[in-house]
Design brief:
Globin-like; 3 domains; Arc Repressor Mutant, subunit A; alpha+beta; 366 residues; 64% helix; 6 strands
């Protein structure tokens, strides 16, 4: 069927309707949006004319136009549903116009199939362009923010000018203080979005590093902990922004060396500094404990446990017996044997500290 004679009238009707719809939604009808609207209507009407005459007409160029319109919608901050709604409205208006012509039913049926198939094709192309642009935008943001986080935590701190430029590129206002979270996850983008409040994240060395600005804000860390529920996560200390590497290093090491409950959870480095200190270098405390306790190799575990309790209770026999659930006479007997083996070590404050650390590592915090 030849729709060419009807094309100018159909075009003007569509433009009038869609302009009114956009105006009611507060959309601009000037500049790029106005040109995009006119191009979209012209392309859709022309495509319908060609398809009515030749159902096999190639829609490659038409799809390309609507992919670009979809990308433009994303860049202008609109939801894809808005463009879909306009296409649906335009399709209904075109059908209203065509069904009002004096056309035989078989022709109308064929036109209906052609028209609504075209609308679906245009909507699909627009959504494709929108989503492709959205994905590219997300990749660009990930790259920009990963660069910012890398600058924050690198060994040699960047200059204030370089850091500010990276923060501006990432649209991230530099805070006075921050904390770095290390999370057993590679889903940094989604975690950062769920945490909100300016939190940014990147995957570095197989773990997500989340940078939380102003972590002292009431409720902020509690919210982040809720977002991370079920994951192993370590929260570094709050530091000035220029000292971000310190928080990064502590949280990263905590993720590797601290024990976590079976269901995961958030640990705070500030609460576990002693464990971090003694566990910083894997295997080092094992060697330290063996070296220190080598001088006590003649003692059995019951005597060593008694010595550990006695050191913890600052030499109080009764408190030691209570901690061990043992009789005081038993404790005194063991201590005499310990004194014979340990000798002057028990009178040296530094030696006592070394013994207590080594025994703590051997028997646990207790």
């Amino acid at each position: 069927m030849d729709l060419q004679p009807l094309a100018p009238q159909l075009r003007e009707r569509l433009l009038r309707l869609i302009r009114a719809e956009m105006r009611a939604a507060g959309r601009s009808l000037t500049g790029g949006q106005g040109r995009g609207l006119t191009l979209g209507v012209d392309t859709a009407v022309t495509a319908l004319v060609f398809l009515a005459a030749d159902p096999g007409h190639d829609l490659g160029e038409v799809r390309s136009v609507f992919r670009q319109l979809g990308a433009t919608e994303f860049h202008e901050g609109h939801r894809i549903d808005v463009l879909r709604g306009v296409l649906s409205l335009g399709g209904r208006e075109m059908w209203t116009f065509l069904s009002g012509r004096d056309l035989p039913p078989p022709t109308l049926y064929a036109l209906a199939s052609t028209l609504f198939g075209l609308v679906d094709t245009l909507a699909g192309a627009a959504a494709e362009g929108y989503l492709q642009e959205q994905e590219q935008h997300a990749r660009d943001w990930d790259t920009t923010r990963r660069r910012l986080i890398t600058l924050l935590v690198q060994v040699d701190p960047p200059s204030a000018t370089v850091l500010q430029a990276a923060a501006d590129a990432a649209r991230w206002p530099l805070p006075a203080t921050l904390a770095v979270l290390s999370v057993d996850s590679t889903d940094g983008g989604n975690l950062a979005r769920a945490a909100g409040h300016g939190t940014i994240a990147a995957v570095i060395n197989d773990a997500t590093r989340m940078v939380v600005p102003a972590p002292g804000t009431p409720g902020r860390i509690a919210h982040v902990a809720a977002v991370l529920k079920g994951r192993r996560a370590a929260l570094g200390p709050t530091v000035p922004t220029a000292a971000a590497r310190e928080s990064y290093r502590l949280s990263g090491r905590a993720l590797r060396v601290l024990p976590f409950p079976p269901g995961g959870g958030l640990v705070r480095c500030e609460d576990r500094l002693f464990e971090l200190l003694t566990g910083w270098e894997p295997g080092l405390m094992d060697r330290y404990a063996r070296t220190v306790l080598d001088a006590l190799s003649a003692l059995r575990d019951p005597e060593l446990e008694t010595l550990y309790a006695w050191l913890r209770e600052q030499g109080q026999v009764m408190a030691t017996a209570s901690a061990l659930h043992a009789h005081p006479q038993t404790v005194r007997y063991r201590l005499r044997k310990i004194r014979r083996v340990a000798g002057e070590l028990l009178d040296d404050p530094d030696a006592r500290l070394s013994l207590q650390l080594a025994l703590r590592h051997r028997f646990g915090a207790g």
